[in-house]
Amino acid sequence: MLQEILVQPYLVPNCNSISTLPIRLTSDWKIISSALNAFTIDEADEILTLVDKLIDEATWNKVMEGCNYKAHQKAVSLPMIKRYVQMILDGKFPPPDIKVDDGVIIKGHHRYVAARIVGWEDDLNERPCNNVKKEQYIREWSEVNVDTTEWDRDFI
Q1: Residues 45, 86: Cα–Cα separation, whole Å
Q2: Number of domains making up the chain
Q3: What is the CA 64 to chain-centroid distance, rounded?
């Protein structure tokens, strides 16, 4: 199940806003919990509020710092990432599959970001994706824009 959520310490300076959650803030920008299965709906909503603060233009580079893959997309949708995080918090989402070609994510950018946020990066199921003309589209994550609009028409 969920193991950790990345957080910038300056977003939660004294942890008072999350003091009801069974978690502790560590010095390396992570919230660690041994009791995340016990989250209530309100607590999960509070986690998603932290995700809202976490994934914005100001913190994006820190969130994606040190990731194992490069990006193929030029943008990601914050509402889609939040939905994947919510599914993980609800226990409805196994470690996600992503399509990768030579270290570049071809399909699964939102699932990958959600997996990083909840500490599942090492549990990803990497699937090969061959014969992709991707060279001109390879991006560092610092070049990927965070879009606050909804991309999924079912949720508009």
Answers
A1: 9
A2: 2
A3: 9
